[in-house]
Structures are given as C-alpha cells and as structure tokens.
C-alpha cells in the first residue's frame, strides 16, 4: 500500500492558497505537519456534524428508553432539555477549539490548557476517553442500525402472523458486521465525495421526516392522541421511582447528541477550522433540536399503547405500521430512516478514524507508529480506521451474551464522550478561562461560565446515570454492561500507561 509517513518525516500533499494555507500554518505552529486535504467548508462541516447525530435515525433506534422511562413527557421534554444542555457543551467546546483546532480535539486541548505538573496525565486520560467514546458510539450506531433493520423487515409478517426475520443473535451480529464493513469501505474509498454525501443527507433527512409526518398524521388508522396527552402524559414503566425513571430515559437524547464534539477530529480537513468548526457544532445542535421535534411529536400523536411498545427492541417500525395500516406503506416510510442509518455510520466511522489517528501520532496507543500512518492514495488514516473497525467487531460479540448489549455500547459511548468533552472545559474554568479570552469564538465570561457549568454538571450526572439498567428488577440478560465495557477500556489505558506511557509519553508537541 502507498503510505505517507507520520509527522516528522518526509512526505506531503499539494495545498491550495488562501484560508487553507493559513489553517496549515496554524496547525504547524501547534506542532503538527499538515497531512490531510482540507476539502470542507463551514456548511459542509455543519452538515457532517448533523449527520453524525443523524436525527431522526438516532432518535428512532433508541425510542424505547424514554417510552419506558416516562412516556410522552420523557420523549418530548427530555429531548428539549438535553438539546439545550448540548448547546452549552457545543459552545464551550467551540471556544476552546477556536484556539486549538487540531484533530486531537479535546485530548490536545486538555494538554495545552493544563498546568505542566499534570498535563501529560490529563491528556492521557482525556485521550483514552475520547478514543473509547468514538469507537463505542460508532459501534452503537452500526449495531443499532442492525437491530433497526430487523425491526423494519418485520413490518412484514408470515402467514401465521410471525416475524419474517427471527432476529437471532447471529443474524443481528452478521448484519452489524456487514454494515461496519460497508461504512469503512465508503469512508476510506470515497473520502473526497463525503462532503457531497453529507450535503445530500440534509435534504434527504427533511424530505424523509416531512413524508413520514404527513402520511402518519393524514392516515392515522387507529386514531390520534390529543395534544394534552402528547405533551403532559407521564407513564413510567421502568420500575424505577418516577423522577429517576425520567432521568434514565434521557439515554435516547444523550445518545443522539453525544456526537457533538466528534466533529473536532475533522479540524485538519477543514479550510478555516478555528471559526468553521465552532460555528458548525452549535449550528448542528440547533438543527438537530428542531428536526428531532419535527419527528418525535407526530409519532406521539399516533402512538399505540406504550405497554405494547416497550416489549419491542425497536418500537418505531411498529408505530408507523400501526398508523399506516399497511405493511408495504410502512416499509416505504422507513426507507428514509434506513438510508440515514447508513449515512450516520459512515460519518461516525470517518470521525472515529481521525480520533484514533490523532491519538496514535503522539504515541499514546500500542503500536502507534503503525496507526499514525496516512494512506497517500486514499488521503485517509487507513490503518487507524482498520484498528477501530476490528475493535468494534470484537466488542460486538458481547451481544451473544446479552441481548441488552446495545444499551452497553450506547451507554459507555455517552459516558466516555461526555467525560472527554468536560475535561478541557474543567481545566479552562480552573485557569479562569484565561486562554480563551482572545479566542475568535468567545462567549464572554458571564455566558461562558454559565455554559461551562451546565456542561460539567451534565457530565457528573451522565456518568452514573447511564450505567444504570433501563428496567428493574434486572437479570443478567438485561443488565447494563456499560460499566464493564468502560472498565475494559480503562484497564487497557492504565496498563499501557504503567508499562510504557509513564516513562515515554511526552504528550502532543508544543
């Protein structure tokens, strides 16, 4: 294969003039050699950030959690609440990213902001959280897609009313592996076309949502709920106390918005990352908020009995089929969501590979020299992409031991990314936001401290919250194994730090 050497050796790419050169000069001043082509504009970055969350698909695959946690109140107001929190997270990260726009993202930012006495440890911990979160969220997206595809196929029934596809563990796993390979192939072989794919996804999303909304509300074969029920009905089915049940149901919204900071890993492929990426993060959250409401509220107006839906792993296909009353019509309306699912997987695969590559080029991953290489012909960090793909497939085997594996993947992804996002924010607050006073994207101290505090508070809540099982009493098959997966990543990180990092890891270049 044709490779470009890692930073510090020969090799390079032809650059265009203007903002690209300015961005490359800034990257060089931060200690890195430009290796990837800058082929994305502000809107294209915003579109990719939108695709990473992939509303409404991200909300469709996890609708079980708020339905089980609190019903319509959990679905609507949980989404609004977490979206507002995520705007604070995006704005907080945007300030810091405008100062340090590198693919290392929050990992690099934590190192640069922290005092010399603990900057290496801060970067190491944050980097492992960020990489682990990228990998497990990408895994959760593709695994959720596999489960969703099974649910979509089963809107059709056999002659005796049974499912067309049994959804055995091996079937779900094979679909997941196939989807993972497809996403990696598209991301690696079609890198230069990905901005166009993200732009297409925006129009496809709103066209699909409008089509679903119009059809299910117009037909509503089994009637419509009234507005009071949609916006005020609370029905906790999880077994937890009502207040905590509502909180556990927030996993849907947290999962759908957890990708907010993943776009930072694309900084070295953006023409003016110091201004484009912060704006794109905030803009994408705002777009996602409205798209989510546009999708969720119509579903609630035609919602069947919640007690029946929470028995299903994927309730959305059943909701649409109930509203349309026709197998073929329901499947046709699900096609936009199925396409979005694949586009989301491609976007997450792309961002995940950059996160792994950026961490590896600073020597923080075993075998870093290999994972830090960039393939010149494809202009992507192919080795890092293959590493993340293999880890995702290995972790996917957990599904054979627990049907609640998707809960673990999505939960640990949210935990790791949320904690990683909070790390540079906490350090920035500890230094009284001095570094970002001259940032090109600056909220000012009053609004800045407010957003920073909200982001850190959300992190402190999310870490224990998403280790909880979604339903009690719990048995091994439905246990939330997020804490176990989190422990595995933590153990690898600690072992590698003690075995190698403590003596050899110097952190990012300064």
From TrEMBL:
GO CC annotation terms, alphabetical: membrane
UniProt key word Hydrolase: no
Record-linked Gene3D superfamilies: Amino acid/polyamine transporter I
Gene Ontology BP annotations: amino acid transport
Subcellular location: Membrane
UniProt GO molecular function: transmembrane transporter activity
Keyword field contains Cytoplasm: no
Coiled coil: none
Keyword annotations from UniProtKB, A to Z: Membrane, Transmembrane, Transmembrane helix, Transport
Superkingdom per UniProt: Eukaryota
PROSITE patterns cross-referenced by the UniProt entry: AMINO_ACID_PERMEASE_1
Membrane topology of this protein: Multi-pass membrane protein
Major place of residence: membrane
TM annotation in the entry: 45-65, 77-100, 121-149, 169-189, 201-220, 240-259, 280-303, 331-359, 380-400, 406-427, 447-466, 478-500
Designated name of the protein: Amino acid/polyamine transporter I
Source organism per UniProt: Microdochium trichocladiopsis
